[in-house]
From TrEMBL:
UniProt name for this protein: PepSY domain-containing protein
TM helices/strands, residue ranges: 6-24
Keywords: Membrane, Transmembrane, Transmembrane helix
Length: 213
């Protein structure tokens, strides 16, 4: 009788462990493409660390709107856009969450995406798509022209261009868009691991992508 009781208790314990494991993996995995509220994120634990240190959902939106407005002269009005906000974990090994905020203007008049480090609030990438004007010239920009074009954005991102050097400029394709696009690589003069790239529409003299490497 006692043996049967012990066996039953062991069986129940094993079932509870399996259920707990399944619940843990379901609760603490964040999937791409799912919309999360701030409460969802704060409730997650990762390596027993509360996510209360994360940049809030609203703060991430404010940071993205600010960089588009002050760094790129793009005013985004939620009344004429569809807005999507997601959060995802970059890898299973590293505690690294990112907010992705995107806006899509009605009638295909433009799309704007911003990724933000959910811990530091640092903007890690920006993507811009706007209808291309084929009537502009297709000349490639010089280094001086490039610096002048991106200076407002880098200032907004607290990047001191004096600490960086251009290590690569290449003519690039940008999806199905026609025209001349240049991707420029920047490397910190004192830290070769600190890099970022900017892709510009040379004809329209506009930035279409920023990416922290």
């Amino acid at each position: 009788m006692m043996k049967n009781r012990i066996a039953m208790l062991i069986s129940i314990a094993v079932i509870l462990i399996i259920i707990s494991f399944l619940i843990y993996n379901n609760k603490f995995s964040i999937k791409e493409g799912i919309l999360y509220s701030q409460k969802d994120v704060v409730d997650y634990k990762d390596y027993d660390k509360e996510k209360s240190v994360l940049v809030s959902r609203q703060k991430a939106i404010d940071l993205a709107l600010e960089v588009f407005k002050n760094g790129l002269d793009i005013e985004i009005n939620s009344n004429d856009c569809d807005q999507y906000i997601t959060i995802y974990k970059e890898s299973l090994e590293v505690q690294q969450y990112k907010w992705t905020i995107s806006w899509s203007r009605y009638n295909l008049k433009g799309s704007y995406i911003c990724e933000i480090d959910a811990y530091s609030g640092k903007i890690t990438s920006i993507f811009i798509y706007e209808p291309y004007n084929k009537e502009t010239n297709n000349n490639e920009l010089s280094k001086d022209d490039i610096i002048e074009l991106i200076k407002k954005l880098t200032n907004q991102l607290d990047i001191d261009l004096n600490q960086y050097e251009i290590t690569n400029i290449k003519k690039d394709n940008y999806g199905d868009l026609e025209g001349v696009f240049q991707t420029i690589g920047f490397t910190n003069k004192s830290d070769v691991e600190d890099k970022f790239t900017v892709t510009i529409d040379s004809g329209n003299k506009s930035i279409v992508e920023y990416q922290q490497d």
